[in-house]
């Protein structure tokens, strides 16, 4: 009897430690969907670039017209907005089930710590564009996104760390294959997200 | 029976145990955070906080955020040390049985 009480105590301690420091209502489904949006976005971008006769000449590329650049930005923005809203939607649904508040100390801490490397990376990538180092943009977004995931992993499901490391690695690899950024993007933001989301879904959500 | 000695009576309650657990992994926690996580009433929480404060296991700071009074709690080094001992004792007891 006594040792049951001790067991309860230990599980209460563990439960409180993780509940008070980690936001666990992230759903694997939002990862899967974010990956799918990214793949659709990458496909659309690929189509636009093919039409602009861009893909065929990886080395000696024509300057992109203003229209094409604008279209690419719109696609990127759409993918980001859709992914974030999906993540919020599924987290809300999941937090209702688990009784966790969606906007509390843990989720605020998660968002802040995720955004610090991410915003830095976003600004850095814009600077790369400004300074005409377009070829490195894909690599830099992947690397900083990976760093953001690694940093955020301390405040949510620890597995996000591996998604982050995978993105950092292919980001670094992408620096050696300038001109093929779109394929690395599709792999990192698309395939990795779907794979990671599915894993998380089976591990945490299906109970 | 040396083991039993390490079971700290001050932590032998669900709420105080929860408060200490939260303060082990967070630099600070405020009243509302405890309330949400532990699901207790104000009065109940205040009295358990008092008990831990009296043992010098937690530190209480009252301050104002804007115009709202805010009480924030943190674990003292002594509190952290004692709580670690308590966890060790619990784990040993479980392994024994």
Task: Explain this structure.
The complex is a heterodimer of chains A (207) and B (97). Chain A has 207 residues and is an all-alpha fold. Chain A has helices at 2-21, 28-51, 66-98, 105-130, 137-152, 160-174, 181-205. Chain A has one domain (27-205). In chain A, helix 2 runs antiparallel to helix 7 (181-205), helix 4 (105-130) packs antiparallel against helix 5 (137-152) and helix 5 (137-152) packs antiparallel against helix 6 (160-174). The radius of gyration of chain A is 20 Å and the shape is elongated. The two termini of chain A are 29 Å apart. The relative contact order of chain A is 0.16. By secondary structure, chain B is of the alpha+beta class. Chain B has a single domain (2-96), classed as Arc Repressor Mutant, subunit A, CATH 1.10.10. In chain B, 60% of the residues lie in helices and 19% in strands. Chain B has helices spanning 2-6, 14-25, 31-38, 42-54, 77-96; strands at residues 29-30, 58-65, 68-75. The model of chain B has no long low-confidence stretch (mean pLDDT 87). At the A-B interface, helix 1 of A face helix 2, helix 3 and helix 5 of B.
Give the helix/strand layout.
The complex is a heterodimer of chains A (207) and B (97).
Chain A: H1 2-21, H2 28-51, H3 66-98, H4 105-130, H5 137-152, H6 160-174, H7 181-205
Chain B: H1 2-6, H2 14-25, E1 29-30, H3 31-38, H4 42-54, E2 58-65, E3 68-75, H5 77-96
Antiparallel strand pairs in B: 1-3, 2-3
Order of helices and strands of chain B: HHEHHEEH
At the fourth level of CATH, the homologous superfamily of chain B is Winged helix-like DNA-binding domain superfamily/Winged helix DNA-binding domain
Helix content of chain A: over 70%
Mean pLDDT of chain B: 87
- Mean of all residue-level pLDDT scores of chain A: 89
Largest interface: A-B, 18 and 20 residues
* Helical amount of chain B: 55-70%
Number of domains of chain A: 1
């Amino acid at each position: 009897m006594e040792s049951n009480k001790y067991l309860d105590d230990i599980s209460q301690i563990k439960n409180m430690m993780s509940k008070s420091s980690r936001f666990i209502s992230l759903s694997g489904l939002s990862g899967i969907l974010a990956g799918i949006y990214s793949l659709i976005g990458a496909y659309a971008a690929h189509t636009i670039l093919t039409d602009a006769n861009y893909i065929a000449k990886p080395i000696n590329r024509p300057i992109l017209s203003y229209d094409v650049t604008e279209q690419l930005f719109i696609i990127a923005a759409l993918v980001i907005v859709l992914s974030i809203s999906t993540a919020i939607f599924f987290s809300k649904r999941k937090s209702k089930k688990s009784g966790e508040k969606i906007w509390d100390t843990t989720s605020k801490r998660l968002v802040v710590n995720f955004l610090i490397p991410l915003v830095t990376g976003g600004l850095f990538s814009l600077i790369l564009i400004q300074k005409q180092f377009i070829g490195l943009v894909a690599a830099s977004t992947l690397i900083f996104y990976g760093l953001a995931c690694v940093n955020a992993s301390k405040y949510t499901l620890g597995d996000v760390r591996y998604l982050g490391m995978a993105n950092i690695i292919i980001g670094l690899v992408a620096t050696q294959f300038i001109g093929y950024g779109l394929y690395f993007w599709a792999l990192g933001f698309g395939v990795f997200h779907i794979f990671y989301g599915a894993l998380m879904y089976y591990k945490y959500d299906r109970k | 029976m040396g083991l039993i000695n390490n079971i700290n009576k001050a932590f032998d309650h669900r709420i105080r145990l929860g408060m200490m657990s939260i303060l082990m992994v967070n630099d600070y926690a405020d009243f509302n955070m405890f309330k949400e996580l532990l699901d207790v009433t104000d009065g109940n929480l205040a009295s358990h906080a008092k008990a831990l404060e009296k043992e010098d296991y937690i530190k209480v700071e009252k301050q104002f955020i804007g115009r709202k009074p805010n009480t924030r709690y943190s674990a003292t080094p002594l509190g952290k040390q004692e709580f670690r001992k308590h966890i060790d004792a619990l784990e040993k007891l479980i392994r024994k049985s």
